[in-house]
Fold each of these.
Amino acid sequence: MQVLIVDDVLERQESLTIALLRDGFQVTATSNMKVAETCVQCGHVDMMVSVESIAGKRAHGLALLAEYQNPMVSTLLITERNDADVDELFELMPSLHGLIGTEVSYETIEQLVRGSIDTVISVADSDDHALPLLLETRVTAASNYAAPPRAISEISQVA
């Protein structure tokens, strides 16, 4: 499984990269949107974890490009949003599996990513390929979101 991490907070990027490499995943990490776009265009990305914007450039187009390249991709977005607009993000990016607040601990982000990966693997391995079920289970992890956060374990309950 190929995971792309796009994050300009290098400590968080490093922590997540090391954790996923230890779990045996292939990981590409960058803080440059052009490099991320090239990775998506040239490779097969199964899971993308990205901040919402880097240097003023939004990751929405990157998520849509990843989805075009691989319709089964799952995206987690690290964002500062805490308003009613968060629901619009799920409509804009069908591959969006969850939103993570910027104040969430690195360990919690790692758990969310692992849960999302487990769900993608379970759906891909199932006979019915229930992608709509995967995309109906969404998670927000932050203390300041208007929508109530769901439990981390809910991600894995789809399979």
Amino acid sequence: MANIQVKQNGYNVDLIYNGTLITSVPYTVAKDIARAILEVAKKSEESANREKIIFDQAIIAKLGIPIGLTNDPYMRKEAIKEAYYGDVARYMFGKDKSKKIFGVPRIASRN
């Protein structure tokens, strides 16, 4: 892996790659670059975890909780499809539904 260093040099930020100064920019420019890199990194992370996000969003939709994990319209549409037609219910409520007890338990007396 390459050796990348970021150092402060007065009001400037220096980017050093394998011991060679690549660029020196004012701190305001460095902050703008950092924001842009972070934004693209978050989008890349979302793409890398696409299936997990869709599945988790489907669970949230199935439970009726009004929050979203993504702003990507394709992923939201796929999550709704998964919530309605996928295996979400099986993972939420167990694989064998016959052992589930629904309702309020009743106490029966033998008098």
